[in-house]
Amino acid sequence: MYKPFDIEVIREQFPILERKINGYPLAYLDNAASAQKPCRVIDALRNRMASSYANVHRGLHTMANETTESFEAARGKVAEFLGCPSPENIVFTRGATEAINLVAYGLAHTINEGDEIIISQMEHHSNIVPWHFLRERLGAVLRFVPVLDNGALDLEALRGMLSARTRIFSLVHMSNVLGTINPIRDIVPWVKATGATFVVDGTQMAVHNPVNVTELGVDFYCMTGHKLYGPTGIGALYGTAHALENLQPFNGGGEMIEDVFETHVTYNDVPHRFEAGTPPVLEAIGLGAAIDWYRQYDPADVRQHEMAVYAQALDGLRDINSFRLVGDAPEKGSVLSFNIEGAHAHDVAQILDKYGIAVRAGQHCTQPLMERYGIHSTARASFGIYNTLDEAERLVEGVKRCVTFLL
Ligand SMILES: *Cc1c(COP(=O)(O)O)cnc(C)c1O
Fold it and tell me: Does residue 250 sit in the same domain as residue 139?
């Protein structure tokens, strides 16, 4: 049974939302960069450190067992959250960036000169640079699927690019700039037909929409904790059993081994093979708490609310003559990137901050996408579970003031 969606009750659970910025109540509209944390997460971290803490997996004492249990329970929560068959399909990482790097490094042994890796123009740098490494080091060919003017992926072009040369196809599920949600399920059969490995950057998607990796049928799916109301320093990589068995470990050290000899090493089972050294124990437990908290609410309610706030802001902003929306795909989430013609996005963000409104401005780690649209940057308001229609109105009023000041 889900709890009723009551925005006031939700906001009360985030102490930081009481903050004033420059004398105004904080309107935190930078959720695509990182989300704020509910008491449930803050308390979970505090309680863990205050009452039962030790390293995981190695100890035979009570607190080592308690901490290991909580850590492994968190893995189970991530698995359930992503709809994956077993906790053994989940590798804890430092975040989405590390998850993608692990996949790129771990698949390097399957790549030969001239093999193609296909990504898209709307990728975050963390789903571009690791593949450039394979281009630089192994002579792989890195190709970018174009994005249409409205921010949707050019599916026709994608079909034309996929071939027997494709070894890896890696795609963002929901863009952190355009908000575009890519039709992964439709694409899976095309990629499968080439025999390529399908990697999905689900960093934004997992926060705003229910995800079921089993139904999607992809090989790897990456997510992060700090955008899902959890701590920084924790993320997860889902892989099918087959995909994980094929992946070479990235970090070597304690816990990822079975036996170490002078002559050779044998490795621990998946997923522990990929978690060398002391893992982010507290962060993982914090992520588990974030997922528990978040799953109290019906994802349909959350999405409906976030999209209502988005629509309210967009409606108001569209009245401004110099307003230019970046990303208007039919399928999109609550990310609103824009420019004010004649003004710099950084100036817009700075003026909004004077009124307590936190938005991001810049390239958002998506330089090829900026290039695609012939722009240097955008301002970006990104809405989360606790944002209100009133905050959307304040954004509109704030941008109107920017226009008065800057144009
Ligand atoms: C934030 C983000 C990342 C990077 O995630 P981290 O966990 O911060 O490393 C990757 N891809 C997308 C689409 C993002 O929004």
Answer: yes
